[in-house]
Amino acid sequence: MSAQNQNIKFEHITTDQGLSSNTVxxxxxxxxGFLWIGTYDGLNKYDGYKFTVxxxxxxxxxxxxxxxxxxxxxxxxxxxxxxxxxxxxxxKFDYASEKFIRYLNDPENSSGINSNLIRxxxxxxxxxxWIGTEDAGLDYLDVNTGIVKHYIHNENNPYSISSNMxxxxxxxxxxxxxxxxxxxxxxxxxxxxxxFISFKANGDEGSIGGNRIVSISEDPFGFLWIGTEDxxxxKFDxxxxxxxxxxxxxxxxxxxxxxxxxxxxNDSKNLIWIGTDxxxxxxxxxxxxxxxxxxxxxxxxxxxxxxxxxxxxxxxSGILWFGTWSGGINKYDREKEKFIxxxxxxxxxxxxxSNGVFAIHKDKFGDVxxxxxxxxxxxxxxxxxxxTWYQHNPDDPGTISSDVIYSxxxxxxxxxxxxxxxxxxxxxxRQKNKFKRFxxxxxxxNSM
Length: 448
Prior knowledge:
Methylamine Dehydrogenase, Chain H, four-stranded antiparallel beta sheet, five-stranded mixed beta sheet, Thrombin, subunit H, mainly beta
């Protein structure tokens, strides 16, 4: 898709299709191909056809601990980890047993997680889990020992993490760990020194635009794109340590639609998608630094279903998924909007029988019938990419009466009727794969 194409259509997936809630906070495609959806009311696993919903079951310690799922990740062994901002702590889903293992805060255990209010979870290359908490700093879980290391803000240590309110944890392509805080800027973890450096909004031209960091993404050039709740969209250049700010300008319709940016994602086409708080979905056009807006339009079923966009995911087939506050999931398949050209090729069986096309009809079985100027009738089975030609043979009365086809229609019984340019009409018997001819002068087997 070109960034210039603003007329995209979204497919909506909601509770009507089996999703447990229309409020979607996070999306993940796992290594098995399943789509995991964290919602306000349950964890969903989607196979493309149906949903499996996981909810807390009172009295069952192996059910998920809380139904409000704020973040998701997968570790190198294929385990799914969930974090709940609403007091449910950390959960690990084991595929083999279909059970959850809970990691909850215990004030008596200093080696456990520091808080049950979890905003962000991230699995690193070793399989260990970084945990961003709402109120108790950053935790690092060693999955082999079960011991958690804590990183807490210390006012007397300028190299400690800048805040205990952690909104986002992100690992870039060079294995650098970035931490977005809820009130005191962006942090980079210096692993060798076990220290943090921070980037805070201070009004300078090259500083970050806001201190409430909720989303971090990386483009192919190594630039970080940072969404804030209080300073729009920011592009960070790791070579200069400078930020470029993009904010809403009420006088510029091509600016960012809302300064509260909840999610940023760079897709495989190098397009930057931005989900905002009631400003809808934005697409950044690199060529002219303009933003294309996609917002809910009442009465238009192809528009995005809600203007508050919380999560964005591109799956491995290139389909884009957008999670919203009240409109469920929006699905955008770029491939469906591409043109497929069918033409005549005398050396290929996968082609039309002629390039002159007078009539097209799609029947109730999904086959496409094409009436041509001189090549008779072509049937196309799109799923199997099969082409079948039907052409006039003067020695076979079961063939079509002419190769000049002007019209095609289908009656309620599924019988196809074909109008020719010079030899009356024909009906097609699907069972016998033969045509019955009708003409006004009685020349054929049935007169009209």
